[in-house]
Amino acid sequence: MIKAILIFNNHGKPRLIRFYQYFTEDMQQQIxxxxxxxxSKRDDNVCNFLEGGSLIGGSDYxxxxxxxxxxxxxxxxxxxxxELGILDLIQVFVETLDKCFENVCELDLIxxxxxxxxxxxxxxxxxxxxxxxxNEIVAQVELQNRMEKSEAIQNLSPxxxxxxxxxxxxxxxxxxxxxxxxxxxxxxxxxxxxxxRHPQL
Amino acid sequence: MALKIVKxxxxxxxxxxxxxxxxGIRNHKEDEAKYISTCIDEIKQELKQDNIxxxxxxxxxxxxxxxxGYDVSWAAxxxxxxxxxxxxxxxxxxxLAASQCFHESTDVIMLTTNxxxxxxxxxxxxxxxxxxxxxxxxxxxxxxxxxxxxIMTLMSHTKPYIRKKAVLIMYKVFLKYPESLxxxxxxLKEKLEDPDPGVQSAAVNVICELARRNPKNYLSLAxxxxxxxxxxxxxxxLIKIIKxxxxxxxxxxxxxxxxxxxxxxxxxxxxxxxxLYECVNTVIAVLISLSSGMPNHSASIQLCVQKLRILIEDxxxxxxxxxxxxxxxxxxxxPKSVQSHKDLILQCLDDKDESIRLxxxxxxxxxxxxxxxxxxxxxxxxxxxxxxxxxxxxxxxxKIIDICSQSNYQYITNxxxxxxxxxxxxxxxxxxxxHLIASQMLDVAIRVKAIRAFAVAQMATLLDNAHxxxxxxxxxxxxxVSYAAAWICGEFSEHLENPMQTLEAMLRPKVAxxxxxxxxxxxxxxxxxxxxxxxNQEGNTDSTAAQETIQLMIERLPLFVQSANLxxxxxxxCILQLVKYIQxxxxxxxxxxxxxxxxxxxxxxxxAPKAQKKVPVPEGLDLDxxxxxxxxxxxxxxxxxxxxxTKEETxxxxxxxxxxxxxxxxxxxEARKQEQANNPFYIKASPSSQKVYQDTPGVEHIPVVxxxxxxxxxxPGETQHQGLPMSDQYVKLEEERRQKERAEKKxxxxxxxxxxxxxxxxxxxxxxxxEEDITxxxxxxxxxxxxxxxxxxxxxxDKDPNDPHKALDIDLDNLGEMAGRRxxxxxxxxxxxxxxxxxxxxxxxxxxxxxxxxxxQPKKKSGKDKRDDKKKDKDKERKSKxxxxxxxxxxxxxxxxxxxxxxxxxxxxxxxISQVAELPTSTSAEVSDLxxxxxxxxxxxxxxxxxxxxxxxxxxAPVAEVVSGAAQDSEPDEPKDTEMEETKSSKHKxxxxxxxxxxxxxxxxxxHHHHHRHSDGGGEKSVQNGTxxxxxxxxxxxxxxxxxxxxxxxxxxxxxxxxxxxIQGNLQDGSQVVVSIxxxxxxxxxxxxxxxxxxxxxxxxxxxxxxSGPHDSLTVPFQLPPGVSNEARFVFTVQSIVMPxxxxxxxxxxxxxxxxxxxxxxxxxxxxxxxxxxITTPCYSDAYAKLLExxxxxxxxxxxxxxxxxxxxxxARICFHHHFSVVERIDSCSSMYSRSIxxxxxxxxxxxxxxxxSIDAKCDEPTMLGNVLDEIKQTFSQC
Lengths: 201, 1279
Prior knowledge:
The structure holds 2 protein chains of 2 kinds.
Chain A: E1 2-9, E2 14-19, H1 25-40, E3 49-51, E4 62-68, E5 71-77, H2 83-101, H3 106-111, H4 113-123, E6 124-125, E7 128-129, H5 134-154
Antiparallel strand pairs in A: 1-2, 1-5, 3-4, 4-5, 6-7
Chain B: H1 2-13, H2 18-27, H3 32-48, H4 52-67, H5 76-83, H6 88-101, H7 109-120, H8 125-138, H9 141-154, H10 160-176, H11 181-190, H12 197-213, H13 222-231, H14 235-248, H15 253-269, H16 273-290, H17 298-313, H18 317-333, H19 335-339, H20 342-348, H21 354-367, H22 373-386, H23 390-409, H24 415-425, H25 434-447, H26 452-464, H27 480-491, H28 499-506, H29 516-538, H30 544-561, H31 566-587, H32 593-598, H33 611-614, H34 639-660, H35 662-678, H36 690-693, H37 716-721, H38 726-751, H39 758-764, H40 804-811, H41 815-829, H42 834-842, H43 844-853, H44 857-862, H45 870-887, H46 891-904, H47 914-917, H48 923-935, H49 943-954, H50 956-966, H51 984-999, H52 1004-1028, E1 1042-1046, E2 1050-1054, E3 1058-1059, E4 1072-1081, E5 1086-1094, E6 1100-1102, E7 1114-1115, E8 1125-1134, E9 1141-1152, E10 1157-1168, E11 1174-1175, H53 1181-1189, E12 1194-1200, H54 1207-1218, E13 1221-1226, E14 1229-1236, E15 1241-1249, E16 1252-1259, H55 1262-1277
């Protein structure tokens, strides 16, 4: 089970939080701070596993994270998940974001937190991995966006909701570090997609 | 572009959207909080508008603010409004907000039930999808109950997108509403073979998650998963399955044997590191589970270790980390294979990554031997010096101490070295572990007698060197060490070279800055030293030294008399007066030294921490009895019941206290341990197996050998000046010593002297490196801890910090886990029907017919829940059914067949508890399937093994049958004659015993004991009967023994598990169950080396002697000549008693006759019913009434049809088999009471009219009650 998914930037500012277990808002913020503290002091070339912080987890839980440009993607998982599998899952998630937002950068996450949530919902549901096939995820997200679009046109909804139609168009002009692309290298995902040969018994 | 302009202009007119909010917050970096609060005001205004679009926009913004830490629960109702919008766009916003901020105590969730149900059945798959996603985050028990059926329907939705979500969310539903697991499980199982890989993966995910907590319930799925494993191409699914197998193999070693080959193939073939890693992990789990049975898997172990070495050597830090992690699992069972990679692991200690260093440290623990301990610790000491950051350094410190003290200092050959290491560790500034070092010093000084002189010298130096006293006393944990130092110097002051100097050091003014408890020890031990000095000086003609000492005491003590700490003050003033008095006496030339030292005479021996608890209560002492009767509140007329009532009350309050406060208890226990660690009068136990079996407690019997001090006693201060840290010197000296010894030994061997150093041989063979035969520098007797004489050797607290079950144990407490555990009960429910169930499962055609036979069943069950939407649901169900039929899936049918099976079960129908009663599933059928599948495994299994497996499986039926058959007949003196078929065996046994009586005088004692037990049981029963019925005919007294398992060699009879609850102990110890088993030799050969083993479950564990591993078997303490039987008792600890338990076990034995001896084994299953946890406890009617009025108890009821027996027989049966006592009986109505070993009250009201018996029951633990009622039902269904 995944207990929580946190995305924050190099300064610890949350960009998306998704807890699959109830914590009060104050607790959530504390967890983010603690996790940031743990993760940020680690070099980029050390391992991506951390034995959980005191707030979230306990002995059965691990923090598994990846660092892309300005963002940390942290998954808190228990021992039923495969460590390397989750690392691949993070990669899938970020690659999906990259596809949906066309060269994703932190700004996309800042201004479209809701969209990121919708994408995440197609990957993880209630703390369990729902789908790992990137094409399937992207297809479902796009179908839902199309539905929203058609609703907006049919029902002449107020124009300010039109932004929902334009994924990854606005805000790019802002000059800040947050516009650095996450540079998602297409990793050779071993867990996902690669079929293996099987022993015949 | 045009759109943007329009948008911009309208924005200004209306409200901010999410982007505007974000932009605004970014532009107001200085006064963010203020800006947000104005935004929240705006949002509140927007929420008041009628336009749903405006509301949705506001809710969307709230979701963002929630992420920033703002509580938005006040808008919960608005969120529900947005959720119920008909537009997908808004609905999605609403559900997202709900999933982010709703939780179980959000009250508006109640309002969402119908909306969610509507969305779930929406024709638009994304409406359904969004509702499922949202629900997965905020499902409550109520929602789960109300929607379970709808979600179950969705599991067979046409769209795989919905199916996979529905399958996944079922796990959450199970957690919140455990009752749904059983009805939903068959369909969930089907989804394992869904054509869509996503759905399949979801189903695997859910079942793995369920099975992880309660693996044994899912053993029956192993063949299916095995098939999936060999057919699936999805690595995610493979990983999950392989992980699941890792959890299953400890329960079923045969499964492991079957797995090894495919897993090995996967390891060789896969390119995915993640998959490879999980395969290695599971292979390790398999090998661990096999390690007791089959030794020859060194090839597999080698493969694993090799692969792991590759991982560890990889430049990828992640792989390195995981490699170390997996290595530590191998270490537990195959330390040798890991030890050969010591170099690699030591190398990892230097890694820059802390996660990796910590993992490597864990590994070190298991890698030390006598040979390399010093070297490894030396390396760690270097790290301690280098480590920046106190956390890692503290971790190192504890690891050093752990490593050295493990297995009762098994690997330490030179305690002088160890003491000097401890002394060096005291130089760590700001460590939190001062008390740990202190307790080690105390432990070593007390338990290793030979080292005392050295220790005292070192401690004296420590006291003299002020470095412990520097710095901030309160913060500096290291000052705890001075506590140990002062105590050791005082207690063993006879070893001091210069007690006068030490005394002076202990009374320095600076001592007054130490914490109070340490000062107190200083003062007390100063007195001890004073006594020693006086004694030493007594003979001298020149009394100036003594005078000086007295003067010193009189000068310095007043400082402590003024102490603010009460303890210090009190001790100081006492001692000061004493010293003054002594001074007076001395001036009169009276010899006082003898008397003064008598104050501190006597030696302290280490006492095992459990010793106190184990002291048996002397005969005739009733700890529960009042010393003085408590004053009665009012002068009541009715004396007797009053007193009893108060007694009942106390009983009542105890269990509740225990139940609630498990955590609190653990905390207290921890605190107590801490306290003991700091208290010189307590010695921490170290896990040792020797002490347990020691026959003669007491130190007198242990030979104390003098040390020859090959090492000059030096004090750390001086050695420091020489530049070389002193422990290093010991390392060198030790090396030299060992070399010398080796050379000497060779010489000796050559000369073949008869005088072998037998004295040292004992220590030779302990430790893994017996090849190196390192003798300790000096003989050290590790004084064993004292235990009271007849104390039980084993005890519950297992100190292994790496016990994987510990984490799970905690999990088991919460309700969610109960869900998963349910199916376990299933297999126990239908033991008789296994054959038919197998057939049914194998012929789907019959299933179809079965459906028509019992078509109404599922609806009846869930009817209550879905009354409101009943019609709709029915239609839906029908529709989906039709679809399915077209597709030739037999989902529904199978499920209903299952339910039908239950109906057919020859059991009286129950109403109120039907949900619980329906628990039995097809697992029993599957278990035999599994046995078949497993027995086909390429294992060295002969046909006979299979036969015994089947025998074992079938043996359960008699268990129940005999129990029910037992009370039926009424021949008080000859109970055996009229028993049912199976119990013939017990008759047989009796006869055999008679034979034995004639033949074997020796065994007489044991058998007598056995007979006693029988008559005890009978006696107890007749007492019960007395309470049941005075005037009616006496009821049969009978043996509870019934067949457990048998084969052609041996028969095992089990007595209905009876409980012993610790009379003196607290109720947490009350979860012990004693099982008596009679072993009977049926063949003509001699049976010996019987070993009894049971696979522990999380809940129930066989108590094994301390020091043995969790899979070790117990030796049955006797051998069986042909035709002889004997009884052995085994103690189990059980944590939760609310569920019945079934444990698998094996008896291995050697059959020996003239020609040959063969190894045989016999599998059996131990069945702990909930009933067996009940203790017959009398209860008076007024206390009983009070109990019922208290309202703490939850009710349930049961109806039995067609019971043909006199009412008093019925009562007797309940009393006898289910350990109840009759409280009151009026005609054909009776109230009964019983109490569980953990103090649950169970009350029954039994009414009989004609052939119908109705039982209303109340208990403070509904699950337990349900199970007890089931068992009662079972009892009567078999008559």
